[in-house]
Structures are given as C-alpha cells and as structure tokens.
Amino acid sequence: MTILDQINENKRTEIAEAKSRVSVEELMASPYFKRKPNSLKAALLAEGASGVIAEFKTKSPSKGVINETAEASEITVAYVAAGASGLSVLTDDHFFGGSFENLAKARFANPETPILRKDFMLDPYQIYEARAHGADVILLIAESLTKELLLELTLKAKELGLEVLVEVHSAEELEKLNPQVDLVGVNNRNLKTFEVDVQTSVRLSKLIPDPFVKISESGISDPESIAQLRTAGFKGFLIGETFMKTDDPGKACKEFIDKLK
Ligand SMILES: O=C(O)c1ccccc1NCC(=O)[C@H](O)[C@H](O)COP(=O)(O)O
Fold first, then answer.
1. Is 18 in the pocket of ligand 1 (CB under 6 A)?
2. pTM for this structure?
3. Mind listing the domains of the chain with CATH numbers?
C-alpha cells in the first residue's frame, strides 16, 4: 500500500466522521460562504509576481516533524510580507499536523491573499468544508481520482466559487484534466519513493496545454531552479519544507524571494 493509499484510506474514515458531525447546511451557514474568494490564478499572472506559494506545513510523511513551534498567523503574515503570491495551508492532521484552525488563522490574518486548502480531496463534502473555512483554492490529486470524480469535484468547486489546482506526476494523469480546471501542478515528489526532482516539472511542462496556469510543487530549495522553471512556463512555485524547516520561515521566504529579483 503506497503512502497515498494510506492517506486516502484514513481520509475516507475522517470524511464519514465529519459528515456525521457537521451537515452541509451547517457548513454553508459559515460567514466565509458570503466572502468573494481571492484568485490564485490572477495573483500568479500579475505583473512582477514572485509566483511563490508559501506553505504552512509542520510535519510530513517524508520528513517527519519539520517545525514543532510554528504558529500559522505569524508565519503566513511573514510569508505575505516577504512577497509570496499565495499561501498553502495543510488541513490534514494525521499525516501533516494540519488543521482547519490553521487555515482559519491564515485566512483571518491575510484577507487579500489567495489560500490553497492543501488536503486530500475525495468527496464534494470537503469542498464545502474548504469554502466554510475561508479557502480560495482546492487541490485535486489526479492519481487519487478517476477522470469522472475529478470532473465532479471540479464542477462543485467552481459552483462554490473556488479555483481548482490539479496535481499530476505523470503524462498519463494529464488525460484526466478538464477545461474547468484553473491550475495544473506538477509534483516533483514521487509519492512512492519520496524522491524529489525538479526536472519532473520541466519534462511535463511541454505536455500541459496552454490555458492552464502551471505550478511546480515540492522539493524546490534553491532560487536558481526558479529561472529554469519560469523558462519552462511555470508561474507558480509551491514551497513548504525549505522555509518551514528554518528557525524563521518568514525570513527564509524573504531571502528566497529577494534572490528572484
Ligand atoms: O511532503 C510529503 O512528504 C508528502 C507525502 C505524501 C503526500 C504529499 C506530500 N506532500 C504534500 C505536498 O504537496 C507538499 O507539502 C508541497 O508540495 C510542498 O512540498 P515541499 O516544498 O517539498 O515541502
């Protein structure tokens, strides 16, 4: 069983529990349902954008504990002040130490910044959750979903005003895309071996149709690789561990972005 299989199995149990505790109607009563979501696509395409989507991530299956003391409001505010174009906040607790509390803190502290709810989405219910907790974008991992379910979840997200980032790791997974998808992310991390290789993004970039805004995800640790990714057409760069493993993630993010100028 791969780590993604394990995560998805656990997620199905969590979704069933969440549904028994909180109804869709209750989620829709959240004040966040009334706010207009921020566009990650627009932020990444804006003139002079760094393209950095800075992630709040405290542990992971590949690295274990990354940062035990991090506080979501403080770090996400520092990321935005550093010039990040968007934020990503893990909400999976079991494998990543994430929470809706962290998402809500990031939302409250950064009202104008697009925020990705980073989780493992398998059910339309989770899209209501994302909207109810202030997210602007959801992630759909192509490997976990059939083409039909990916379309169903995409349409639900669009109906609720959210943007959709589809994550791929191989050329075959690109066949699951549909025209409603906003952003395509290439995961540089092989989820079977945990190896990271930024060249995965470069290789797949040529196969991603033009209308999709391209994001390179995972294992980005040096500003030099951004130049190569930009040349390959990437507008977004999802970076977590490189910042979060330091004593001062906001400072690390600022130093990284300053080197892009
Ligand atoms: O990070 C992991 O170990 C991981 C394992 C299994 C599934 C997903 C995983 N990561 C989720 C992510 O998408 C990353 O947090 C994100 O791309 C940032 O990556 P990094 O900059 O390498 O922290």
1. no
2. 0.98
3. 3-33+40-258 (3.20.20.70)
